[in-house]
């Protein structure tokens, strides 16, 4: 199958049926001659899925059958192209209609053609209909999530949702053990690559235009890594010192592990733990590229008896599994796949991990709890509950001029094209 529209339709349909990951699903097509377009179709359609679905409903008298989800998604992909991309309309219609044959549903040819041409004729009227629809439909945000963001962030809601629908920036982390940020700026400039310094993390550099990682000068040499600015704040917040024993409890693919080692190489031990063998291998690859060493352990952070040697840690990073609502711009399939009930399950896991890992921390040690979520029940409320039920846990505070100060942490909201992902930080001390 070479038609990128039909491939995209099948990928999205499989995601909905099997609850996988868009990035993982796309990886098997990385050698496709139109891979960039395939990425754009999948990411863009997921980003605007609810809006496109609303338009489709306005263009049809009755919904498609459940078993024809691939045709529905093919039509949504067509609508996305007509609305958002600069591909000529006739090419969009022809290629999208052709996708019905690749999906082995030639009967749908006239249906897809009719709906897309109907949209072409009536797009102005449909735009007005969309403008009068529910706010969560206009910004293509699941209603439960829209309501929660509105309740939590009120006046910031519009900005958050607008930024969530933007394409994410490509952000670099400078390896300060090898290069200074100004040296990297000079290197990029010499290679005619436009870049900006960060506003928060001194190691972060934003590229004006995305590019293949292997083409970034200094990447192969280990001078640079790709990492969002939010994550780059971790080493400083953890207050890593020479001689510390440090645990990165949910570590893969190893970006924060590497950032910690770059900030302080004279640790007693850096332990990187993750549940997934495959993801541990990604950590190993990142460590090898940067010339760094860590103890890699495959294991469940909630079951220390399976992997812990009993020696307490000076510092623990718990980047907890979460809703990932702060990184939707990078993973728009979250809009399609995530449910409110999923968040409730994650909250229970977070609480368990906090309680379990706390026993692995030295007295006077620090645990940094982080998530890439913007939902208070995973963040500030989660930490508040932990501190109130654990006598020897104290919130240390995070003195900073970035983000939003909360009672038990600090919240970065999803930034614009020159801003960080949505991320929460809470620093806890064990008495």
What features would you describe in this structure?
- This protein is of the alpha/beta class.
- It folds into 3 domains: 4-138, N-utilizing Substance Protein B Homolog, Chain A (Orthogonal Bundle); 170-226, Sun protein, domain 3 (Alpha-Beta Plaits, 2-Layer Sandwich); 234-430, Rossmann fold (3-Layer(aba) Sandwich).
- 46% of the residues lie in helices and 15% in strands.
- It contains 18 helices and 13 strands.
- Strands 5, 6, 7, 8, 9, 10, 11, 12 and 13 form a 9-stranded mixed sheet that branches.
- The chain starts with a helix and ends with a strand.
- The relative contact order is 0.09.
Give a brief description.
By secondary structure, this protein is an alpha/beta fold.
State the helical fraction.
40-55%
- How many domains make up the 3D coordinates? 3
| SSE class | alpha/beta
Q: Count of DSSP helices?
A: 18
CATH topology-level name of the largest domain: Rossmann fold
Distance between the termini: 61 Å
Mean pLDDT: 96
Main pleated-sheet profile? 9 strands, mixed
- Give the CATH level 1 class of the largest domain: Alpha Beta
Number of strands: 13
How does the overall form come out from the CA principal axes? globular
Question: Oligomeric status of the shown chains?
Answer: single chain
Poorly predicted regions? none
Proportion of β residues?
15-25%
Tell me the CATH superfamily of the largest domain. Answer: Vaccinia Virus protein VP39
**Radius of gyration in whole Å, from Cα?**
23 Å
Based on the structure given, which CATH architecture of the largest domain is correct?
A: 3-Layer(aba) Sandwich
């Amino acid at each position: 199958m070479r038609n990128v529209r039909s491939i995209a339709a099948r990928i999205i349909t499989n995601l909905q049926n099997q609850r996988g990951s868009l990035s993982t699903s796309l990886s098997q097509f990385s050698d496709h001659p139109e891979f960039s377009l395939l990425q754009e179709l999948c990411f863009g359609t997921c980003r605007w899925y609810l809006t496109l679905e609303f338009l489709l409903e306005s263009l049809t008298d009755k919904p498609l059958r459940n078993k024809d989800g691939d045709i529905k998604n093919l039509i949504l992909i067509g609508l996305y192209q007509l609305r958002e991309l600069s591909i000529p309309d006739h090419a969009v219609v022809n290629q999208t209609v052709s996708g019905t044959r690749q999906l082995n549903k030639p009967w749908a040819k006239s249906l897809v053609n009719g709906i897309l041409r109907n949209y072409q004729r009536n797009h102005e009227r449909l735009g007005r209909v969309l403008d009068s629809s529910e706010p969560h439909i206009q910004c293509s945000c699941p209603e439960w999530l829209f309501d929660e963001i509105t309740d939590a962030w009120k006046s910031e809601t519009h900005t958050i949702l607008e930024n969530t629908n933007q394409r994410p920036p490509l952000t670099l982390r400078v390896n300060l053990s090898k290069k200074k940020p100004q040296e990297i700026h000079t290197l990029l400039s010499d290679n005619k690559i436009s870049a900006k310094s960060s506003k928060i993390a001194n190691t972060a550099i934003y590229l004006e235009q995305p590019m293949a990682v292997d083409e970034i000068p200094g990447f192969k040499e280990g001078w640079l890594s790709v990492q969002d600015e939010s994550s780059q704040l971790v080493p400083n917040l953890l207050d890593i010192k020479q001689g510390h024993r440090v645990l990165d409890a949910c570590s893969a693919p190893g970006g924060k592990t590497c950032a910690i080692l770059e900030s302080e190489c004279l640790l007693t031990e850096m332990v990187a733990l993750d549940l997934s063998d495959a993801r541990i291998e990604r950590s190993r690859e990142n460590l090898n590229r940067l010339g760094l060493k860590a103890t890699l352990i495959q294991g469940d952070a909630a079951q220390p008896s399976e992997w812990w040697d009993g020696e307490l840690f000076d510092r623990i990073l718990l980047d907890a599994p979460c809703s990932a609502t702060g990184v939707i711009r990078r993973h728009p399939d979250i809009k399609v796949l995530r449910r409110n009930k999923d968040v409730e399950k994650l909250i229970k896991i977070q609480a368990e991990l906090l309680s379990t890992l706390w026993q692995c921390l030295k007295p006077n040690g620090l645990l940094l709890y982080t998530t890439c979520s913007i939902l208070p029940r995973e963040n500030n409320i989660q930490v508040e509950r932990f501190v109130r039920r654990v006598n020897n846990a104290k919130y240390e505070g995070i003195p900073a001029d970035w983000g939003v100060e909360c009672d038990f942490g600090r919240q970065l909201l999803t930034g614009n094209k020159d801003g960080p992902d949505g991320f929460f930080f809470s620093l806890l001390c064990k008495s």
